[in-house]
């Protein structure tokens, strides 16, 4: 259902959350573009999934998906010493944050997305950040993104809107939202073509998707899938 005659720009990584958000935007906005970031990730599997996901989502919402913008951001990888940008153990640091936290990542992503949107005359920015069952990343918090929306709007002298449709949804609810938006076809698309595994494992297809099965991202995705299937009594996707 289109709720706006305007366009939206979705931060699209190729993961479950961003794929669901892209579907959410396609369902609501007249035109949707995507932006991705190559910042020296430990693996490129998630980025490699983007093209196929975009193609299949375009078929579900024909004629609404516009340009894709891939931005190189190597400086973020250069200044980060994390388990997502280095061959480091995934664990919790002395500050209580997981070693997968990339400081400033979402702050930079939204600032750059806003700059792209300014050039494209797009004021609606969509991201898959979530504060419900996340890893404690401070730049995923609702307060952070509300403050960022105000700051970017002031800096551009233009009202922008940051949408986070998953902010108060756990992973089970995220799977349910995908079904609500695009039925079994979208759920299966996200299950098999999106990627969330921190280790970049793409060799084994589990009932919840590809992944190593034991990193925090895989465990979260798998638990959400199990809860989703249990709550909706689904067994048709495996």
UniProtKB/TrEMBL annotation:
It holds the Pfam family QueC. Coiled coil: none annotated. ATP binds at residues 12-22. It is an enzyme of class 6 (ligase). Keywords: ATP-binding, Ligase, Metal-binding, Nucleotide-binding, Queuosine biosynthesis, Zinc. NCBIfam families: 7-cyano-7-deazaguanine synthase QueC. HAMAP family: QueC. This is 7-cyano-7-deazaguanine synthase. It comes from Sphingomonas tabacisoli. The lineage of its organism: Bacteria, Pseudomonadati, Pseudomonadota, Alphaproteobacteria, Sphingomonadales. The gene is queC.
